[in-house]
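Figure 2 data, in text form.
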Amino acid sequence: MKKIFFCHPRLRDYRLPLFNLLNDKHEVTYFFKNKSDISIECPKVYYSVKKRGKVSLFQFIPLRDTIILLKGVLNANIIVSSFSLDIYSLFLIILSKHKKSIYHFENNKENKSFDFSNFQK
């Protein structure tokens, strides 16, 4: 069973089938930058303590978020991030430089699907 660390801006209802499928087949830890009205049934779900709004490259990451990101990267075989270019994505890139499987999950409005073939190896 693969350990996946999945970082995403916000839990959306159209992403639930993807997250449920991942939960069924793998051990997944989720980190969301923003809270949502939707909940996911997974024991390892974390939300950023940073106030809502755009996060730039020049803002700091709260200590709690830093610890969650560090633990997630160190414990995972696969890291999936859909953060746009901001301090969180830069921090993930630095932390995960020694990991072999890093995926950027494009948040594309036209294409709401994801190729799962990489997770089956």
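Caption note: The beta strands are 3-10, 27-34, 45-47, 78-81, 101-104.
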